[in-house]
Specification:
The chain is of the alpha+beta class. 30% of the residues lie in helices and 27% in strands. It is elongated. Bound molecules: FE2/S2 (inorganic) cluster. FE2/S2 (inorganic) cluster is lined by residues 114, 116-117, 119, 132, 134-135, 137, 149-151.
Length: 181
């Protein structure tokens, strides 16, 4: 006949033989716990370090890949009138960009996303500068630098080359903060 373990005294009585064979001191248990905790902290720190190193390595690889962008001909650039612009996509179809031909006939191109909150900028023929309609930011058409407004940095530059009278996009150069942003 079996007796149910119904309360604390029953459980203690039932486990007493095992406690006698496998004794432990609560202080020692606490020491082991501290040691285990220290080991845990060490392992966690090592794991975080390895993770951070992995991210840094990936960023370095991505940065290296960023310089090898496709070369693309901007087909309508040659017929673009002076002091005007046209939109294109570079380096992918999802990346809108803007080509500007200034009054002196020079070409400049930039990513079209404003560096403030990503509204698309446009070329103002009247003011001969790039303007952002969202918060009245403006950029220099020949450098992409911020003229005024909230944008924290210049527009990303699209690198151009002219070959036999044809205009080609050859790379994209992210800008760096200029207004402390
Ligand atoms: S998004 Fe261009 S100024 Fe704010």
């Amino acid at each position: 006949m079996t007796k149910n373990l119904s309360d604390e005294s029953d459980v203690r009585a039932a486990t007493a033989p095992f406690q006698a064979e496998f004794p432990y001191e609560r202080d020692e248990e606490a020491q082991v716990t501290r040691r285990e905790f220290c080991n845990f902290l060490g392992l966690t720190s090592a794991a975080l370090f390895v993770g951070a190193a992995g991210f840094a390595a990936k960023a370095a690889v991505d940065a290296r890949e960023a310089v090898s962008l496709p070369v693309a001909r901007l087909g309508d650039a040659e017929t673009l009138a002076r002091n005007s612009s046209l939109n294109f996509n570079y380096p992918t179809e999802r990346d809108s960009a803007i080509l500007i031909r200034t009054a002196d006939g020079a070409y400049h191109a930039y990513g079209q996303k404003c560096t403030h909150l990503s509204c698309p900028v446009y070329y103002s023929r009247d003011h001969q500068r790039l303007e952002c309609p969202c918060h009245e930011g403006a950029f220099d058409a020949t450098t992409g630098n911020v003229l005024y407004g909230p944008p924290p940095r210049a527009l990303d530059a699209i690198e151009l080359e002219t070959r036999d009278g044809q205009v080609w996009a050859t790379g994209r150069k992210p800008s760096t903060p200029t207004n402390g942003g």
